[in-house]
Specification:
20 helices; disordered C terminus; alpha/beta; 4-stranded antiparallel β-sheet; disordered N terminus; 6-stranded mixed β-sheet
Length: 656
Amino acid sequence: MSSTVRTGHDDQPTMRLRAVRTAPAPGRGRHRRPECYDAEEEQPTPQQASPQQPTPQLPARMAFRRFWPLTRGDRRWLVLICVCVVAAALAETAAILLFSNLTDHALQEGSLSAFWSPAGQWFAVAVLGAAVGYTGNSLAVWTAERFVLRLRARVFGHVQDLPPHFFQRHRQGDLVERLTGDVEAIEQMVVSGVVGTVSALFSTVFFATAAFWLRWDLALATFVLAPLFWLAARRFSGRIKAVAREERVADGAITSVVEESLGNIVLTQAYNRKAAEEKRLRREARAWMRASVAGARMSELYEQLVEVIETLCVLAVIGLGAWEISQDRMTIGQLLAFAAFLGYLYPPIRNLGQLGLTLTAATAGAERLLDILDAEPAVADPPPGAAVTPWRVHGTVEFARVGFRYPGAQKRTLAQVSLTAGPGEFVLITGESGAGKSTVSKLLLRFYDPAEGSVRLDGVPLHAMPLAFLRENVTLLPQETLILHDTIRENIACGRPGATDHEIVQAARDAAAHDFITALPEGYDTPIDPHTAQLSGGQLQRVAIARAMLRNAPVLVLDEPTTGLDALSARRVVRPLRRLMSGRTTIMITHDLNLAPDADRILVLDHGRVVETGTHGELLALGGAYARLYGSQNGADVMDNTATGTGEFPAPLAGS
């Protein structure tokens, strides 16, 4: 609380968690590179989906109800903050009344003795108001940040449960923006909005009551114009919401363009796309600028209109007060105090209108955030009490007449697929691009549930076991080598958190990675990332194999393990791959058939159906789809040999 009375139109010193805006704050997203999901099967892709998904029009009241439960646990602090707000408003009211008393007695009478008592009371009120204001504001910031932390954690946790196709329909940069800027907008609506509303309401009541107590007739005369504030806010609310939504979407688009451009910098430079990328950024930046400028203009127009209304009200008070003083019906102290009350009264009235606009603008962020929270995970844990008891998994995998279609796809990706793989068996699945091979791994890891048939582990349907238990017992080595922005040690250790250094080193030895790791200046503590220049693609793949070694799950799924590697790197990866596969149920999904002679069984998929199954020799002798695939990789000699019945096949990779 200030120790001087203001008769102007500056905002009252009520508590604010953050600066209240009539337009949303610019986004504060952090740049992430959108991952391109390289799936062969027919499913939604970023190119097929529109960059920005339409969101429903959401009333502010409903948005508030959706997010208010997240304040549970902090509501007692919100009550205490509101008590501080009320106390601060009372202190301001008392200070203005003391100012009136001081003016009419100490100043008008010119008596120093009459000064000390009201001056001491005024100072005491100022100290009390300062203490209450500090406590309330500090607590308000702490509570607001706790809400942001809780909401962000909830959205982030929900995002990690969503199926792969969700991320194909949303640009990653836009999702990052929703987790940053849009979360902040929700806090403006739920926490800051509640405290701001309480502050404005109680300030309005206290100052209006004091004004009526001083001169009820002047108060009535000046309050006639008060509804203009509400009318102005109502007039501006619709347009501000539309502009706020446009700005949030444009902000996410800018983040996405930057993420994509920096993440594909090699493509940009190699194809001379610098000008094209700058053009993309300018296009999105112009859209953001138009929305931002429109929002700022609407906000400024509202502010200036309110200033004019306030000035009109104060001039009316001063004019009426001057006439009252000339008639000896009012003292100068009363007039100054009344004018001061108006100076403090109109800002909270104006703030109520601004809070309405802020809530309206925040619903744009709420709509975008609820677009994530309302997205349903493709799979879920079984209900409490319905899950099977964990057991020591042996590794028998069974697909029984499985059919599956990706959400939004027009045709089935798998149809009547059946396969069995037992402990220690190596089953290889191959086929042309788009045949449905990678979908097998997604169903086995239970990213999706089959629409037809069932997938079982040791005879137990996957949907009957907890997801965490399933994924602890099935190791996936995906097509893309996944590397964390961390040290080599941590990249390997994430396969089994809590592993000892000895276990990490042993896993690296088994993956033929220990020698090149120790040759690095910092050894296992060398920082790496997915785009590191310190390690080759084959070396990064061996780090990923070491991670899988450390996990030591009974079931192993290899999805194109040699994709993107040159012949020499692929040969170096084969030996640790064989070591990793030893003793485990292994399902390899691949175009590279160099390991096919080692497979116990080979399945050939075509348009989602198993068209051939057998061993390497049996399928080559059959001379069908597998023989054509193998021949396309190993030359015409294979086809000639199978045609003449010699049965001679190229040997497996030397030294593998």
